[in-house]
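User: Can you help me understand a structure? I only have the sequence.
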Amino acid sequence: MNLQYLKSFYITVKCNSISKAAKSLHLTQPGLSMQLQNLEKELGVNLLNRSNKGVELTEEGKVVFDYANTLLSIQGNIERDLKNLQQDQPQLMIGSCKSVGEYALPCSIYTFKQLHKEVDIHMEVNNSTKVIEKLRKHTINIGIIQYDPKANDILTQTIVSDELLLVGNCYDSPKQISIKELKEIPLILREKNSGTRYSIEKALQEKGIRIEDLNVIYDLNSPEAIKSSILSGKGFSFLPKLIIQQELKKHCIQPVTVDNLTIPFDYFVAYRKNYTFTKYEKMFVDFIISSKRGFC
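Assistant: Let's start by predicting it. Here is the structure, written out as tokens:
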């Protein structure tokens, strides 16, 4: 498959206009149209419906567009990684779930950087699902996630164990509630597809409880925003013990025990199955999973 034709198709869809895409690609409109026709001929399907309103993907075009996004990302990353190899400064491309990336991991990265000043480190923070997506798209090479996806193309190694605690503010929160009372208290949860949300749903399912059975007042995609809501008395939430250690020490947040409900989980290093770590990537992974170091 001609990657230039695939790129032209991808840019045309993003621009929703052959004339705008041609300008972006520094091509004439007839030249771009010829590339699109050659790609359709090569694949044996129609990819676009053209009209005065722009272009619209066919069902076959939607499939090809999704693959084009991945393939072009991989192409860009290949060029980036080859360029990095030609440079004197080695790089680490890391993605982390928010529970670690916004709290403990920066300290670990700082310590590693002090030991290896020659390494250029880049970290992106997302939820665990998006970190896995970025691994698959080759945007990052090392992921730190909150659950094991148990996928054939992703390998994991355990870093450290943690648990989710139900917490409220320190003024009027009970120290213990029943499962029935859990269904009634106002809850603030992490967004869908986050590792925290996944762990909560899994633990509750074992008790015969669905998320829909709870009194969820809203979802937030930031652990820090959830903590702020709790401290201001907006409700309760399940948060990793790792990220509320300071609040627990200062007695700003009250842990709430729920009868017979515990939510343990592990943090993992994740990477592509067929990927071979560079020297410094291997050193960083060993540094993170070392029982003597782990997270700061």
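Now, to help you interpret it: The mean pLDDT is 89. The first strand starts at residue 48 and ends at 51. Let me know which part you'd like to focus on.
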